[in-house]
Amino acid sequence: MEIFATSKSFPKEEAYSLIDQIRKSLRSVCICLLEVYRKKRYPAHFVSKITDSDMENSETSGWLDFALACQYLREELYKKFISRNEEVGRLLYHMINNPEKY
């Protein structure tokens, strides 16, 4: 949500490109996780949806890279967001490799 809130300060000309894309990928990480729990009984489908969430998390990382390159984010804020993004990635990786624990 902090990344979402920060994107409100991006230039208005990015409304239908960078802002829209970063918000879509952020939302998709969460929505895929919600869908996953409906499929816990089916390990292959569970892992497939977690993989989708991981893909969206990676996409968010890419959009953060663009935001930094365009100077819409300060370096320290970028590092904070990337650190959180990487942590989410590690958690998703654990879920992918240990579906029986979830």
Question: Can you offer a commentary on this structure?
Answer:
The protein has 102 residues and is mostly helical. Helices cover 74% and strands 0% of the residues. It contains 4 helices and no strands. Helix 2 (18-36) runs antiparallel to helix 3 (43-69). The chain is elongated, with a radius of gyration of 15 Å. The mean pLDDT is 95.
Question: Keywords for this structure?
Answer:
102 residues, mainly alpha, 0% strand, elongated
Q: If you average the pLDDT, what whole number results?
A: 95
Number of strands: 0
Shape estimate: elongated
Helix count equals 4
Strand content: under 5%
> Main beta sheet, described?
none
N-to-C SSE series? HHHH
Poorly predicted runs of 5 or more residues: none
Q: Termini distance?
A: 24 Å
Characterize this entry briefly.
This protein is mostly helical and 102 residues long.
Task: Walk me through the topology.
Layout: H1 2-7, H2 18-36, H3 43-69, H4 75-97
Helix pairs in contact: 2-3, 3-4
